[in-house]
Every structure is written in structure tokens, then in C-alpha cells.
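User: Good morning. I'm curious how oxa(dethia)-CoA would be positioned relative to this chain. Could you predict the structure with it bound?
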Amino acid sequence: MTTKIIGTGSCPGERVVTNDDLANIVDTSDEWIRPRTGIHERHLTTGLGTAGMAAEAARLACENAGISPEELDLIIMGTSSPEYCFPSGACQVQAAIGAVNAAGFDLSAACSGFVFALMTAHSFLKSGLYRKALVIGADDLSKLVDWSDRRTCVLFGDGAGAAVVTAEEDGFFEGVMGCDGKKWEVLTCQARSGGNFLTEEKPEMGYISMDGQEVFKFAVKKVPECIRQVLDANGTEMSEVKYYILHQANERIIDSVAKRLKEPIEKFPMNIQRYGNTSGASIPILLDEMNREGKLNRGDKIVLAGFGGGLTWGAILLEW
Ligand code: UT7
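Assistant: Good morning! Here's the predicted structure, ligand included:
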């Protein structure tokens, strides 16, 4: 028993914000942002928020899969920016699309959220407990960014992507996940803090804080490693892989991973130019664009690889 993606959908934030727009609010420029990151513009949400974008991506994924939301048994949403501590965003999506028979929960793995959520859904399908699941990556990091911090605010965008997956007899699905909790401070966003009536702390919210160079070094080392791991586990050669769909954090990270794997950059599709880093949403948004552009054919071997806060990483080799 294995897991197949049978439909995808995506929903970026409603408003496009260019590098020049950001140069009006912080001391930055298109000339700085573009060569260092690959980003030209990003989409920010102005109303939909995490759950709203997720619900639209989910609706489109069900439509693309040709299923009714009532057929879903499970919804797993990878997000680090839900609107509520509880209920989960997955429950909001369940209500919005009418997936009345699905259990749902959120999963927190920062930018690795979609890969972790897909691995989790695969485990449920493989065990036979469920047959059809909706896996979502959705983030609205623009509400967690300090808009006066040029080191971070230029990097992120908002969006959601979703995939419907089913249990199938044929094909394969090989995955690996990992984390290095000792490095948790490298990339953080503090949740609402503050004590209780005994501690007299004032409640406060944190902003995204990042040691960019540490994340960069970690990503270019760990991503090729975990990709090699899933290929070896499956006995698949790199030459057999059609696409490596990587978390869209930085064009230079993707270039460097391609070089380290000695694979042509054409096998590493990118849309970071238009969306920036949408965290858990970046992989499923790219996957959806490629699916709708007809770039993926049944039987293609593709690799998905995510990395981010935690520090976390994960890679999946699957047959389309
Ligand atoms: O999902 C995972 C999320 N994180 C990542 O993927 C981050 C990975 N890391 C990176 O992509 C890069 O480290 C960054 C793009 C974030 C930063 O590039 P960098 O080459 O590592 O720059 P830096 O942080 O070393 O900063 C170099 C200079 C500094 O100025 P000084 O101190 O040398 O005068 C910064 O203050 O660039 C300055 N700087 C900026 N200048 C204009 C930092 N951000 C900006 C900015 N505009 N937006």
C-alpha cells in the first residue's frame, strides 16, 4: 500500500507587494533583495488569513482531484501561523469546504510543515486507518514579521497549497524527516508569552527572529543529505528523478543544493521570484503550479524537500 497525490490546489495572499514597495517602508532595495534571495515580489494576505487561504487551496485541490470533500477521511494542515491556538486551522477548513467526515488537526514544523504533514498522512493511509486525506501547507507569516526589520521582512510571503492523497496499491513513497532541537534558537517566533496570576509577567507576542547565515549553512548541507537518503532507501538513481521540488526559501540555496547533488538546475523548478518564502506553503504552491501547467505526468519520479525552523528537514520521493 502506498500514497499517491491525485489533486492539488493553491491560494496565494491577495495583494502583490514588490521589492520597491518594501523599499518605501524599510532601508532596503530591489538591488539588495534580488541577487541575495531571488525574490522579486511576494503576495500578502489582506483578509483571508491562514485558514481562509487554506480553505480555498483545499477546495481547488478537491476539485482538481475530482472528489467531493465528503469523501475525505482526514485533514492535516502544516502551519506555524494559525489564527487560533485552538481550534486547529484544519477544523476551520473542514467546516469551510464541508468535509464533514474528516478528522483534522494542525502540525507545526515551520517550513518543513507540508513534508511532515504528507509523511503523517502517508502513515495513516499505509496503516489502513484512512483512505483519502487532504494535506495542506498554509502560512501567513506577514502577521509575525517585524515590518521594521529589513533582515527578515523582505523574505516572506503568504499563501497556502493543498494536495489530496489516496491509498493506492501501485507506485512508491519513500520519506525521511529529522530535526535538530539544539539549534531551535536559530529561527524562532515566540507565541503569546506571559505567565499566570502568580508570575506577574506582561503578556507579549514575539516576532520572527532568524540567524540567516546559520539557516543557509544548515540548508545547503542537510537538504542534499536527506535527498540522497530517500533515493538510496528506494534504490533510485538521481538520473531517474524528473524534478526536485524544494522549499522556496532562497534561490541561492536551491542553486547550491543542485550543485552539491551534481544535478542540472533545470530539474529544480522555482517560483520564489513571485512568492518569496511562503514557509509551509511553498512546496504545495509550486507543486500545484506545475500540475496545472501539465509538467507532471503519471509515473514521474519527483522529490519534495523541506527545511526550516526547529531546525527541521524532510524529503519525500514519490511517483506522480
Ligand atoms: O525557510 C527558511 C528561512 N530562512 C532562510 O532561508 C534564510 C537563509 N539565509 C539567507 O537567505 C541569507 O542569509 C539572507 C538573504 C537572509 C541574508 O543574506 P546575507 O548575505 O547572509 O546577509 P547578512 O545577513 O550577512 O547581511 C549583510 C548586510 C548587513 O549589513 P552590514 O552589517 O554588513 O552593514 C545587513 O544589515 O546586509 C544588510 N541587510 C540588508 N540590506 C538591505 C540585511 N538585510 C537587508 C535588506 N536590505 N533587506
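Residues 212-234 form the longest helix (23 residues). The chain has a mean pLDDT of 96.
Let me know if you'd like a different ligand tried.
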